[in-house]
Amino acid sequence: MQFGVQFFPDVKPEQKSAAEYFADALALAEESEKLGFTHIRIVEHYFHYYGGYSPNPMLFLAAAAQRTMRARLVTGAVLPTFNHPLKLAGEIGMLDAISRGRLDVGFARAFLPHEFRRFGRSPDESVARFREGVEQVALLLTEENVTHHGRFHTIENTTSLPRPTQQPRPKFYVAAMTTEDSFVYAGEMGYSVMAIPMAGAKMRPLLAVYRQAWRDAGHPGAGEVMLAFHLLCHEDGERARALATPLLDAYLHSLVEAAADWLDGRTSKDYPGYDKVIAGLRRSNAADLMASGAAWVGSPAEIADTIARVQQEYGGFEHASVQVNFNMLPVAEALSSMRRFARQVMPRFA
To answer: Average pLDDT for residues 21-33, to the nearest whole number?
Structure first.
């Protein structure tokens, strides 16, 4: 298994400025590569303190590219629903060049109703916009003089510049949460998948569906899975849990607040059951995240046991993407946690 770091700004401006947040995040990113972490990843969200400091993940990754030499740079993930494919393809080509071919591109459908509303998009078009966007970006990256007439965007005889440094294009990931069809689509298309194991026991069958769809489509191997976790590694497990508990509870609160429209009777054919998903998260707390293995919090030995358990429960995965500075965790604690994890836990799973 390989381990990387991910950044998900979950702070209000009155708690920490964007300048301070990104200074800390870039310092952590630079240190992560020295410690042997293999990727750096950041989210795309808008307008709410749940992720809203990062409306364009490629800007942060371009900065991280200048502080690192080897780590993969992962969009986790860009949102075709809110971005024109011509713009996305050009930015992907540019970042692939700046990073000298270290970019992996994760795509997501978005799931927050307030973002759809503010961008003037319908959640009922989410799947169609996502798949058309990914298809058009892939064409623009792999072919020249592209013409494609889609439902939402038309491209006429266009060659995107700059051309990708990686040939034929950077690796694609599809972000998936609880919708089985998203896992099937990723497998059929031969894309890697990135997921959040908040689905608990459902994660194993969802990943099995992905790997089966991959094999059924005739792709070599069994696919590639990246799962996201919170991390706080401390010599004293009880101290780790005391530090992490209020911050994980605050993270869950911000997520549910950002997604609260799903709890007001809103439904969408493209998001079946999301009212139940968000209601379940509203009932959850930090103890649930730690018990399920979605948050790796404790001593090095405790965390190693948790990793071994979730590997077995989920049927295996290739990459763990860990949030090291979630919510308002002080950067000194994040650095200490990351270093301890790299030296005492990662070698057990190399």
So the answer is: 98
